[in-house]
Amino acid sequence: MAERKPHVSEKKKKQLKAVEKLLKEYPVIGVVDMSMLPCAQLQKMRTKLSKDLKICMAKKRVMKIAMDAVKKDIPGLEKLEKYLTGVPALIFAKENPFKIFNKIKKSKTAASAKAGQIAPIDLIIPAGPTPFGPGPVMGELGSFGIKCGIEGGKIAIKNDFIAANKGEPIKAKVIGLLAKFGIKPMEIGLNVRAVFEKGEVMEASLLDIDEAKYINDIENAARWAFNLSVESAYITKENAEILLSKSFREARALAIEQGIMEKEVVDQIIAKVAAQAMTLKKEFNI
Question: Looking at the whole model, is its pTM more than 0.70?
Answer without folding.
Answer: no
